[in-house]
């Protein structure tokens, strides 16, 4: 489950962020039980400190607490994920409309294609996923930078950990990774062509992943879904 934090630096916040990272990266899978005793032993702290971390995780909908049963990593709630993605898509669709209406798309598309090409050149390795999604974020940040709203995603930063967990769960094959890059190219092509309808459809297809992929995944791994 990764490195245990150094005892002298462990607080409830340290444990909270460490478990957040493990949930996001599927080191703790949806439905996994989190034992207070085991966590206290792992981090070298009292159960009181662990409870503080678990309470914060519950507030962020990352764990569920059931009386007499224990604490469990929350299942993937595709309706909640779809709501968050709906908000994200709404602001990205508006950004694309403004970009196309401005008529000045050349430099914007150039930066988008740069991120795509960098993704294509990535080599498989332990840090592949992290680097791939850093470039994925860069691709989308170009849109917000272009309309003078570079910090807009901070408005949904807190619940976005659920999207990142879903993304790590949903994108587990080379085929899906290639598909993401093709979707990026479709969005960039549409903006370059100043085709608002084509861009709208391409962006919706790219972001509406909970609708597109949850049903087949639920059929084979139903235990991970709410």
Describe the protein.
The protein is mostly helical and 226 residues long. It has 2 domains: 7-73, Arc Repressor Mutant, subunit A; 78-224, Four Helix Bundle (Hemerythrin (Met), subunit A), CATH 1.20.120.530. The protein is 65% helix and 4% strand. The chain is built from 10 helices and 3 strands. The chain has helices spanning 12-24, 36-43, 47-59, 78-102, 106-121, 128-146, 160-170, 174-192, 196-207, 209-220, and strands spanning 33-34, 63-66, 70-73. Strands 1-3-2 form a 3-stranded antiparallel sheet. Strand 2 and strand 3 (70-73) form a beta hairpin. The protein is elongated, with a radius of gyration of 20 Å. The two termini are 24 Å apart. The relative contact order is 0.13. It comes from Agathobacter ruminis. Residues 9-76 form the HTH gntR-type domain. Keywords: DNA-binding, Transcription, Transcription regulation. InterPro entries: GntR_C, TF_FadR/GntR_C, Tscrpt_reg_HTH_GntR, WH-like_DNA-bd_sf, WH_DNA-bd_sf. GO terms for molecular function: DNA binding; DNA-binding transcription factor activity.
